[in-house]
Design a protein that fits this description.
The protein is of the alpha/beta class. It contains 17 helices and 23 strands. It has a 9-stranded mixed β-sheet with strand order 10-11-9-12-13-14-15-16-17. The protein has a 6-stranded mixed β-sheet with strand order 18-19-23-20-21-22, sandwiched between helices. Strands 6-5-4-7-8 form a 5-stranded parallel β-sheet, sandwiched between helices. Helix 6 crosses helix 11, helix 6 packs across helix 12 and helix 13 runs parallel beside helix 14. It is globular and about 65 Å long.
Length: about 475
């Protein structure tokens, strides 16, 4: 037994929130979830949000007020911080934010929403966390479906859009959680039963300060006292494999066939090896998701399922029936022999490279958006090999165009809207159309989901000739 935030914690389960003062940083989806749960458990709750009030905030603020939750906008008051027993942060608030210095001055610890969910979960419930630069959502949903098909209550949650706190009142066996670097950075108590690391490429450099810090945060999830009981690691990724001799966790490797417990691909089939006993899992040719990156996502999911001794028949059937989540090389429609794929979730170059490499034939690529200013060398080389034409939109247009022209690639068309890009791409008749932006969405859209919906809706509105 130990004491944290002024109340007792036993086996990772919070014994009481009643009469505690809970301060939530950020009027976000996860912050609202924490506030509502804490209020229902008898806590006095304040949400503090630095940005100013917007008209669309009124509805949710009124709803929170009806639950007795106070919301302060435009500042973080000293009194709210000073009076807090528990402070829970929204994941996107950067490390250098003034509120963290304020909390430190008042001697207050700040925890993450995953921490809060972990400390309030039922004793039998376990966390399965999945991280990586790309592929987290696909893998998380696939793991959830495999476990649910095996009879467990194993909902997906986390960075995928459903805060684990939303699920605390359910009888959950496994929280299958997509966890971002932001969430890992702020977490101090979350100890998963299984943690998976799919891959690493530089991303979120501005938030973390540099690529090395981003990697350090990702790797920290598998180190020290909070390391998972099992670490599922991609041994084809050198940055992930570095953890082999650092993590105290039991290791299950994937994309590697030379370990005591591993999942590997051979002749378009997946196999599991345990203690030198090799068994076939499934034929990859029967899966509805495709591409080497998705093969790795499937291997990661299979490794988790094998740790939990899920039937191979259930694993195989789930993989064969599993469809790509929205905005991830999502097939939308075929029009006059041209297929249209929505990969709006490709918010960085590495993800777009994976998407391009998933296709056997050349495609017409639509790319661009808010530039993350990462190195474009591998991206433009892949475009040269895999794209018959490139249509550029958004703020990144000039830099992307210059990088492509530097290697002698000139099949570039520039336009000002995504809808125009779709129309031009289809009219070329030079291959299937892949929308894989390699950029963030914020120059033209609220988020990648809205961007993907615009792509989907415009394609669906088109008719055959």
């Amino acid at each position: 037994m130990f004491t944290s935030f002024g109340y007792k914690v036993v086996c990772g389960v919070v014994m009481e929130l009643k009469n505690k003062n809970v301060l939530v940083l950020g009027l976000s989806v996860s912050g609202i979830s924490v506030a509502k749960y804490a209020a229902t458990e008898g806590a006095s709750v304040i949400i503090t949000e630095k940005r100013t009030h917007k008209p669309e905030d009124s509805v949710v603020i009124k709803e929170l007020g009806n639950l007795g939750i106070k919301v302060e906008m435009g500042h973080h008051s000293d009194s709210a911080v000073k009076g807090a027993d528990i402070i829970v942060t929204s994941p996107s608030i950067p490390p250098e934010a003034e509120i963290f210095q304020k909390a430190k001055c008042f001697g207050k610890e700040v925890i993450s929403e995953p921490d809060f969910a972990y400390l309030n979960k039922k004793e039998k419930s376990k966390f399965i966390t999945i991280t990586g630069t790309n592929g987290k959502t696909t893998t998380t949903k696939l793991v959830s479906e495999i476990l649910c098909n095996a009879g467990f209550n194993a909902p997906f949650c986390g960075n995928i859009g459903v805060p684990p706190t939303d699920l605390l009142q359910e009888d959950v066996d496994y929280f299958v959680m997509e966890i971002s670097s932001y969430q890992i950075f702020h977490s101090k108590y979350l100890k998963p039963y299984i943690g998976a690391f799919i891959n690493y490429t530089p991303d979120h450099v501005t938030w973390h300060g540099n690529a090395q810090e981003y990697l350090k945060v990702k790797q920290s999830h598998f180190l020290g006292k909070l390391a998972p009981d099992y670490a599922v690691l991609n041994f084809k990724d050198k940055h992930v494999k570095e953890l082999k001799n650092q993590t105290p966790s039991k290791i299950v490797a994937f994309d590697d066939e030379f370990n005591d417990f591993c999942i590997f691909e051979k002749s378009d089939k997946l196999y599991v090896e345990k203690n030198k006993d090799v068994e076939k899992i499934c034929d990859l040719s029967k899966a509805q998701i495709f591409g080497k990156h998705n093969h790795q996502n499937m291997m990661c999911a299979v490794a988790i399922a094998e740790i939990l001794n899920i039937s191979k028949n259930i694993i195989q059937k789930t993989i064969e029936e599993f469809k790509a989540p929205a905005h991830r090389i999502e097939f939308i429609k075929e029009i006059d022999g041209t297929k249209y794929y929505n990969d709006s979730k490709a918010t960085n170059c590495d993800s777009a490279i994976c998407a391009l490499n998933a296709f056997k034939d050349k495609v017409v690529l639509i790319a661009g958006g808010r530039d993350k200013m990462t190195d474009l060398s591998e991206f433009v080389q892949t475009v040269e090999q895999k794209a018959s034409h490139v249509i550029l939109i958004g703020e990144a247009t000039e830099r992307f165009e210059n990088a492509l022209k530097e290697i002698g690639y000139n099949k570039i068309i520039k336009t000002n809207t995504l809808e125009n890009a779709i129309d031009i791409a289809g009219s070329l008749k030079q291959g299937d159309v892949l929308f894989s932006p390699a950029c963030a969405s914020f120059d033209m859209f609220k988020n990648f989901e809205e961007r993907g919906e615009v792509f989907r809706n415009h394609v669906l509105s088109k008719t055959t000739n």
